[in-house]
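Service request form, structural biology core

Requester: graduate student, group of Dr. S.
Request type: structure prediction, single chain
Budget code: on file
Notes: please return the result as structure tokens.

Sequence provided:
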Amino acid sequence: MDRLTARISSRFLSYGLPFLYLLTSVAFYLHTYDSAQVKITVVQMGGIALVGFWYVSLLCDFEKQWERYATVATPLIVVLLSGVLSFSHAAYRGPSLDEFLRRVFYIHFALIALRELNTVERVRRLILFLLVAVAVAAIYGLFQFLDSQFFPNPQFTSGLDPFVWRQAFGSKVFSTFGNPNFFGNFLVILTPITLAMMLKRNPRQPGSVVLFTVSSIVCSAFLWHASDAMMLIHMESWSSTVFIIVLAAFAFYSVWQFSFLGLTLFFITLCVVVTESKGSWIGYTAGFVSFLVLVLYYFSEFQSDRMRLMIRRSAIVMLIFSIVAIGIYSRRRMTSIRFRICTWVSTWEMTLMHPVWGNGIGSFRIIYPVVRRPQIFHIEGKHNTETDHSENEYWEVLQDEGVIGFGIFLWMIATFSTLGIKALARFTDGVSVRDPVSGKRKTSQDPRAFYMLGVLAAFWGMLMHNFMDVSLRFVSSGIFLWLLAGVIGAMVVNDPMPETDEQAYAKEPLISAPPHPKALLFLGQMVCAVVFVYLTWIVLRDFNDSQGALSGIFGEQLLWLIAWAAVLVTLAGFWYGLIKVGRSLKHVYGFVVLLVVMALPLKIFWGYFMADVFHNRGIYFSKQGKWEDALASYGKVVSLNPNYIMAYYFMGNVYTDRWGPGDVERAMNEYHHVWALAPNYVQTNHQAGLVYLKKGQDDRRLAETLRQQGKLAESMIAFHDAENDWDQALVYFNKYHDIDPVFSPNYTRVGWVHLQLAELAQMRGHPEEAQKHQEAAENAYTESLEAWVCRIPENDVLHEHWDMNHRHFEADMFENLGNVRFLRGKLPEAAKAYRMSLWQGPNNVHVMKNLASVLSRMGRQAEVIQLWSQIRRLAPTDPDVQRVFHGNIATHS
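Core staff response, request fulfilled:
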């Protein structure tokens, strides 16, 4: 037992945990492929450091009474065990590892908060760090909003936002979160906490706090559409002036009335509105209404008839405002609703695969392509992206962990909600204190009441938001639910809660067991010093490499400076704690914990970060056609992170594009790596089909060359190889068709391959086989145009009547259909297809020529002459035009 070291570690954690949440919230970076990777790295590396120090603290104070923690910690530990069990039976544990690690970190953060936030001073510190984080994020969000309002063309003008990601989502604000939805969820969490701190500072003005919040919503809505509002009163020219006046006036009023907290709440509300995230609007409403309900029922000093009426009216107004706004914008933009409904239906089908135990934590993105509805491809307009989550946390927990894990999750929510409500009831009872001067008694409010009010309302607001989103799955906001649970538990367990650390330590004697020999302790210190100096050198070396020199425009330079400052401050804080703990340790097992729990994981997680950096470089080199540099970069990616699916996929694509000797085998080897991790990953099957299509072309050309050289035996072998290659291409194209029935190039290539096989069959003297391949080609083109799979009843989940009104009409596909029908002698049908092609893409000279040939064979010369005249107007110098009209003139003369 080494209670002094336990105290040092505990104090470090009381600063480290809030700092981790601050840094995760404000950190943003684009030198990696995934802009969120920096937040993931902060949580992984900062989290493993906190976990290491926490285990040192536990070991050094193992005689502490744990019984009081058991009730509160049990739900958290069971949720962690549910994740372990779920991960153990996941079909593809490699890609699921990231999701599982997040669960491990989240629960550890909650447990650290539960044990270490044991004084009012520490809870207050955490709240302060969170308020600073939201203030920074909201102020930058305001800058982004102003930038989009006054400088709306980022490609032509500079603006207020100096960074390269400027207006990445148009007018939608995303601040330091890389996505408006993530930013909105963060603001949802901090809104009730900010409100609670405002109420704590202004206990005599509860009505003003409530009315100010409602006013902030109205003002934010006006600022969001100020130009539209001014247009209604025919004063468009005054829009900018009125916008600036209203913004400045309300900001001044916020500061004058409620100081820093008032201005922060106003900026939070404005940013929530301009994220244009309906889920965030719902979460904001839920958090605010939860706050009002808790005030109404538990804060007796605010329960006058007038106050109760105001709270009820404010809640009703907020609900009506939210319902109307969400209803209007849902009707204007149904895309997100359609996307969610289709995804939820597919998620339910995935759940039914293993309803009791689930499919395994993190398995959603691996399984989902099999059940994805075609509507998703039409909504996204892309085929090379994947949907990682189900857009509903409860649905995803049910899919991941089955009924058992889902029940545990709900039990955890119910437990902490009940504990929070009961604790809030105790905290709001007040303490009767006699004034030493007047002798009168007055009620002193427990500050924990306001902390619990904010945290509990934030807990519920986030849970409500997660009906529309999966922010728990992303570190930027996912870390908060478990922190909130830990803070609720900490205030419940540590009741009564000491005001300061000194008061808490006064209750516990400073006891230490006999120390280990100094030689062993010195050895432990030296080993730790060498190992962590080496790790620090690796981090600084690699980060310097990824950052590059201080150059470029102002925004890039500013980002460079901020990134270096964040890294150096973080490393300095880590080394301060490490030195303090290392010098204090009296037992060797503490050094073992530091080396085993912290050192190796830190190296691995830093490797994950650098893997993302190298992946970004690989993409850069690929776009330039620098194949060797690209492959070297991707090779570093998979060496640092063997579960990085996209790197294997991109390496396969590089080999396919380079197409040198041996690249067929290399490409397929990389695609097999992908399938080992994720058998239905985006377009891998289509790319594999393309490999064999190209190989078949090479073999066909070789066969023709050999035949011209008189090497008939070798030529037949090459023809046979080409046939086998194209058969294999069809296998992969059909596999891709099963998970993406919308991608038109897949149908085009299927049809082309069948036509090549038909030609080979004709050469071998098998006309019936040739006819079958031609028919298959025609069916492929027809299926693409007629959208057969999209129109089946089970895919019409939104009752959009796609069986009647949905088609994939494309000019090129109609041309393909016309060509194969012409080849098969189906002249009227070919003419119809060509006309449909011209309807989709008028003035296509090539299609007009084909149509003219078909009509000529059908004997419809008047239409042929009319077509050629039209072609002559469009392309008078075309060689065929010259030939046709010159021939006609010569004949006529």
